[in-house]
Amino acid sequence: MFKKNKPTLPLDIVPPSGLFVKAPGGQVWYVKAGGRYSVSDIHLASWGVTPVSITNTALLLVPERGKIGFRDGTVCQDFGDGRMYLISDSKKRLIANPAVYEALGGDKVCHSVPSEYLRVHAEGDSID
Questions:
Q1: What is the distance between the alpha carbons of residues 70 and 92, in angstroms, rounded to a whole number?
Q2: How is residue 40 annotated by DSSP?
Q3: pLDDT tens digit sequence for 8-66
Q4: How far is CA 3 from CA 6, 9, 47, 103, in A?
Q5: Which DSSP letter does residue 11 get?
Q6: How far apart are CA 80 and CA 101, in angstroms?
Q7: Which of 83, 95, 99, 122 has its CA 20 to 30 A from that of 114?
């Protein structure tokens, strides 16, 4: 149905909700409910997706609304203070019990990140 050898053209229409898009300058955005949210490379890695290329013309049709952080279920360690967090309902929840950390996968799934990238998330209840 679609030819695989043809070069991919950037999307030149208003992107649908739920799509990660990449502008010609390299900035990545998440489109949701008629708005776009900037996504850093560190945050994008937690989502495990490849953004779709988009034209600047199409991108400008979607108003900027803010930033998006880590995907729910991501376990992060703050570079600054060494605290561990689970991202849940878009909030960072302090993992106060080492047994919980191990049950979530421990070092195998933990992303070490600078404090500034965790500030995108509001503080949630700690996990004891």
A1: 9
A2: -
A3: 678 898 899 999 999 999 999 999 999 999 999 999 999 999 999 999 999 999 999 99
A4: 6, 13, 28, 45
A5: B
A6: 18
A7: 99
Residue in 13, 11, 32 with CA at minimum distance from that of residue 22: 11
HEC profile of 50-103: CCEEECHHHHCCCCEEEECCCCCCCEEEECCCCCEEEEECCEEEEECCHHHHHH
Are 11 and 58 in contact by the 8 Å Cβ rule? The answer is yes
How far the first Cα of the chain sits from its last, in Å, is 53
| CA-CA-CA-CA dihedral for 28, 32, 34, 37, to nearest 10 | -40
For 11, the token pair is 């999307």
Query: Which sign, positive or negative, has the C-alpha torsion 20, 119, 88, 62?
Result: negative
Q: Which tokens is 7 given?
A: 């070069």
pTM listed for this prediction: 0.84
Domain range summary for the chain, segments of one domain joined by +: 19-67, 75-123
CATH architecture of 19-67: Beta Barrel (2.40)
- Residue that has been written with the tokens 């700690």 in this structure: 126
